[in-house]
C-alpha cells in the first residue's frame, strides 16, 4: 500500500488516480479533505494512514512552517514504511543557500538520513501555476504577469505524478530526478496557449516586479516571493535547461504546456 500526502493537490490528485488505475492500493491523505485527514505538523495524526504502508509520497505544503521532516519520517519508519519519494524543487540545486528553498533542502537532508529507501523529485515550475490567472481570464480574457519574455521549461503536474508513481514502486533508491517540460515557454506564450485552447485571444499585460511581489505576497512568505521572482525574472542557465529525466522515468517525452492548457481549459472558461 502507498500513502500519498497532499492528495488533493495538483500533483497528489493525479498521483492517486494514476496508482488507482494501475491497481495499486493507495491511501489518500490531506490536511482538510481526503479519505484520511492528517496534518504533517502533527506526525502522530499520520499513524492510522501509515499502518501497513510500504511507501510514502511526501509533499511538504507551503513554506514548510511547523513541519518537522525528521518526525514525519520517523513516524513512517516506525509504522513499517520502507520507501519514501519526496517532492522537492529544482531550486534546491540551482539556488543553494537560498532562503526560499531552505525548508526543502532540510527535507532532502532528512530523507537522505532517514534509513529508508528514498527518491527525490526536483521539478521546475508547474504548468498549473497558470491557475493564478484563471479569474482574470474568465472575466476579462486577460493575463497580468511579470517578465513576459522570460521562458522556463514548466512541467505538467501529470508528468510529476506519473514519475512519482514509477519511483514509489521501487528501483530508484538514492536517485534524484530533475523534472521539466519539453521546452522553455514564456508567460506571454502561456497566455497565448490558453487562448488557443479556449478559441479566443487572451490579452497579456506586463506587471513590474514590485506589482507582482504585492500580488504574490497575499499568499506567500516574503522570502518565497523573492525567490520565486528571482527564478521567473533572472533564471540561471540550469533553470532554463530542459532535463531528460521525465523521459528516463516514463519512457516518453514530457507534455508541453499547450497540452496542459487544452486539458484544463474548463478552468478558464466563462
Outline the structure in words.
Helix content is 40%, strand content 15%. The chain is α/β, with parallel strands linked by helices. It has one domain (2-268): NAD(P)-binding Rossmann-like Domain (Rossmann fold, 3-Layer(aba) Sandwich). The strands form 2 sheets. A 7-stranded parallel beta sheet has the order 3-2-1-4-5-6-8, sandwiched between helices. It has a two-stranded parallel ribbon with strand order 7-9. β4, α3 (69-78) and β5 form a beta-alpha-beta unit. α9 (209-216) crosses α10. It is globular, with a radius of gyration of 18 Å. The relative contact order is 0.14. The mean pLDDT is 94.
Topology:
Blueprint: E1 2-4, H1 12-21, E2 26-30, E3 36-37, H2 47-50, E4 55-59, H3 69-78, E5 83-87, H4 91-94, H5 102-112, E6 117-123, H6 134-140, E7 142-145, H7 157-168, E8 175-179, H8 187-198, E9 203-206, H9 209-216, H10 222-233, H11 237-240, H12 245-250, H13 257-263
Parallel strand pairs: 1-2, 1-4, 2-3, 4-5, 5-6, 6-8, 7-9
Helix pairs in contact: 1-7, 8-13, 9-10
Describe the structure in brief.
With about 270 residues, this protein is of the alpha/beta class. The protein is about 40% helix and about 15% strand. It has a 7-stranded parallel sheet with strand order 3-2-1-4-5-6-8, with helices on both faces. The chain has a two-stranded parallel ribbon with strand order 7-9.
Amino acid at each position: 500500500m502507498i500513502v500519498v500526502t497532499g492528495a488533493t493537490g495538483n500533483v497528489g490528485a493525479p498521483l492517486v488516480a494514476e496508482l488507482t488505475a494501475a491497481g495499486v492500493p493507495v491511501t489518500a491523505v490531506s490536511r482538510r479533505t481526503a479519505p484520511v485527514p492528517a496534518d504533517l505538523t502533527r506526525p502522530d495524526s499520520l499513524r492510522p494512514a501509515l499502518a501497513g504502508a510500504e511507501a510514502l509520497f511526501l509533499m511538504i505544503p507551503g513554506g514548510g512552517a511547523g513541519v518537522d521532516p525528521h518526525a514525519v519520517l520517523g513516524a513512517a519508519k516506525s509504522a513499517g514504511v520502507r520507501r519514501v519519494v519526496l517532492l522537492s524543487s529544482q531550486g534546491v540545486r540551482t539556488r543553494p543557500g537560498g532562503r526560499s528553498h531552505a525548508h526543502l533542502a532540510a527535507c532532502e537532508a532528512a530523507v537522505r538520513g532517514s534509513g529508508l529507501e528514498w527518491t527525490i523529485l526536483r521539478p521546475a515550475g508547474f504548468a498549473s501555476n497558470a491557475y493564478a490567472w484563471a479569474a482574470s481570464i474568465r472575466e476579462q480574457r486577460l493575463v497580468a504577469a511579470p517578465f513576459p519574455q522570460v521562458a522556463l521549461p514548466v512541467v505538467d503536474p501529470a508528468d510529476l505524478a506519473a514519475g512519482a508513481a514509477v519511483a514509489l514502486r521501487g528501483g530508484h533508491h538514492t536517485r534524484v530526478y530533475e523534472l521539466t517540460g519539453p521546452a522553455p515557454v514564456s508567460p506571454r506564450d502561456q497566455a497565448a496557449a490558453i487562448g488557443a485552447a479556449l478559441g479566443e485571444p487572451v490579452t497579456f499585460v506586463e506587471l513590474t516586479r514590485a506589482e507582482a511581489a504585492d500580488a504574490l505576497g497575499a499568499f506567500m512568505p516574503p522570502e518565497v516571493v523573492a525567490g520565486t521572482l528571482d527564478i521567473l525574472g533572472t533564471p540561471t542557465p540550469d533553470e532554463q535547461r530542459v532535463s531528460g529525466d521525465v523521459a528516463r522515468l516514463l519512457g516518453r517525452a514530457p507534455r508541453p504546456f499547450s497540452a496542459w492548457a487544452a486539458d484544463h481549459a474548463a478552468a478558464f472558461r466563462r
